[in-house]
Fold this protein.
Amino acid sequence: MSALSQAKVAALAGGGGTFWLPAQRSTFAAHTDAAFYLIFWICVFFFVLIVVLALWMLFKYRRRGDVIEVQPSAHHNMMLELTWSVIPLIIMLVIFVMGFRGYMDLHTAPQGAYEVQVTAQKWAWSFTYPNGYEDPDLHVPVGVPVKLTMTSRDVIHSLYVPAFRTKQDVVPGRYTVEWFQAPVAGEYPIFCAEYCGTKHSQMQATVFVQPQAEFDAWLAKAGDYMKGLAPADAGALVYKKKGCVQCHSIDGTRVVGPSFKGSFGTRRTFADGTSGVMDENYIRESVLTPRAKVVAGFDPVMPTFQGRLKEPEIAALIAYLKSLGPAAPEPTTGRP
Ligand code: CUA
């Protein structure tokens, strides 16, 4: 399918949500909804028909007295049998043709679409733009076809944007593709639609559909996000943007991994019984090879950030961890 003309895109801009479905915010949303409602109303029609007939027959053929009359029943009726075979066949073919056309639209990205790489991991999305910048949210220009090439670092996830009516599994070890064209600027939620563990339901992000100029300005600025910031402030951004926030709290709450609050400089006991101090080198090692020294009591589930965090980003992260309060004082031995 080719990209729609700007006029068609603008025409699609109207339309709010319904009780069943959110507002249509992609070019193929209307077609998807039409297929949904067709099947929905067919189901409603037959549900009502069958229930009404069943209740009516329940009443009509109820037992009256002790006499049980056995009525002769017709064993063959050509017209009746043809009717109940041909009508469902026609309904089924209409649903098939409609569904297949929609499927082909959903799975065939137009030539020249703007490409964004998507990486899923427990439990965060990351979107890599053509300039190499990586963001936890998806920003796209309005009215432009966008193609997502997606893969996973661990288990199967699924990128789902209800407003766009598009959903595609994201699988480790291969690439899957999803595309859309959003005619209306706005913010729409992204969900993970494949159960992927403890924080599956919180594996969310946002699509920001922005006017082209605004998008270009955002990307240029975002690509240089650490510029001019103090290391600890830059580290706070790394913590949020690179998904650390999903598993490490900064308020002492135990999530998937140890909290970062007041952790710098503390002695940690590892799963293998050894111990070590959480210093600069420990943090760097844990970012690059997370399973080398896993803190006792936690599962070795952290993925490596090798190739995903540059050295300045790791340095900034270390500065940020240092800023999260000094380590709790060692228990005193009672001596002055
Ligand atoms: Cu990722 Cu569910």
